[in-house]
What does this fold into?
Amino acid sequence: MPEKTKTTKTTKKIKKTEKTEAGPKAVKKPWGGRFSGGTNKAVEAFTESISFDKRLWKYDIQGSVAHARMLGKQGIIPKKDSKLIIDGLTRIASRIADGRFVFREELEDIHMNIETALIDEIGAAGGKLHTARSRNDQVALDLRLYMRSEVKETVGLIKGLKDAFASLAQRHRDVIMPGYTHLQRAQPVLLAHHLLAYAEMMGRDAARFEESLKRINVLPLGACALAGTGLPIDRHYVADLLGFEAVSANSMDSVSDRDFVLEFLCDASILMMHLSRLSEEVVLWATEEFSFIALPDAFATGSSIMPQKKNPDVAELSRGKTGRVYGNLMGMLTVMKALPLTYNRDLQEDKELLFDTVDTVKSVLGVLAQMLPVINFRTERLEETAGEGFSTATDLAEYLVKKGMPFREAHGVVGRVVLFASRKGSRLEDIGLKEYREFSGLFGKDVFQVLSPRASVAAKKSLGGTAPSETARQIEALKKGKKNKKSISLPAKKGK
Ligand code: ARG
It folds into this structure.
């Protein structure tokens, strides 16, 4: 039966293929020695990370160059091989940068893609690069180098946004608006004061990311698979070459933990929470109902059916993307939960969550920094509404306190005044002195001086209050802080 003959042939072919490890077209895996059979294609597709970890290539090469230099210096490999490796890696780097490098899924990840290319490039000496190293400490190293650079960039973007808030506050330093609690008008405030609240949040967010750098900037390389190595490596030398502030103390911890990734995701979540509140206010303020701001056309989008629409999609998406970032944090916490020491392949799941967070945060910060300065504030409307809703009632109570009345009593008196005025449908300014005096004999004709929103704002001179003098002080402090504070200083990168 021809059919059967065919089957037998195929079986034989597979057996032969298995013996020669992976078939004629398949690539030899760097770890292929103990395997007699090839890898199932679905397994290759399932386990690969090259499709996303190729973004680490620069850091992988930077780390390998430093490692090769150390191996040569220590006499673990001949100096000439160390040089061959470094030159080969440099050529590979320019091939990747030019887009001439072919990334292969069969080679799993960025580490094996580059190592295999190196061996193709320089021959046997390339096989010496992975001495006293494992992908476990290598991937931890690449991630730390990547994050060090991304955190620095993120901090720069947050500070940029903070400055945008400060400039906007400066520009609108005389505008009064209603301040809210419970989304109900509460007390008049300066628009600048509201904007500067966000500048403060951005300041803390930037500081959080900056502080995380000291935990990121620790060299894990030299931990090898999990236990360290019997070869005479010099980890401090590698740390110096790569600009690390410290060398990790425990090899098992070095390859197991991703708390530095989690910390980034936490910091990013807090930042996004702040930005989602800003976004929400932009959405609200742009409504007809509020009419506090008008978005320029360049930062709004239309509707495919309703011709009249102008929607605040940038703010909505910034608010919406907060969900992704929280999701990435929860995802990573869940990946890490109850993982036994040390390295487990589960950890490969860290990358997409981290990369997505980095991309999301950077895009949100970037677009908001462009939108903020061009938002048009409807200052007349802000001023007009600032005095509505008995917003200076607290000032009235403070007036009575200054005349000697206990605050709780003053609160009660003014509460009754407000009830009276609201029943009459009048504002606090419209009640006559005679009527005021029926509520308390402490009211005098100077009461009318405290009732305007401008007087209310001007009176809030307590430290951090909304008075123009305090707001000006805060703007000054932000400007000074900008001048005084050195940008995050990392040791210059050597060993490139
Ligand atoms: N691609 C892997 C990761 O991202 C690299 C480390 C693999 N190590 C291993 N022993 N399989 O985590």
Observations:
- Residues 49, 53, 109, 135-136, 139, 343, 345, 347-348 surround arginine (CB under 6 Å).
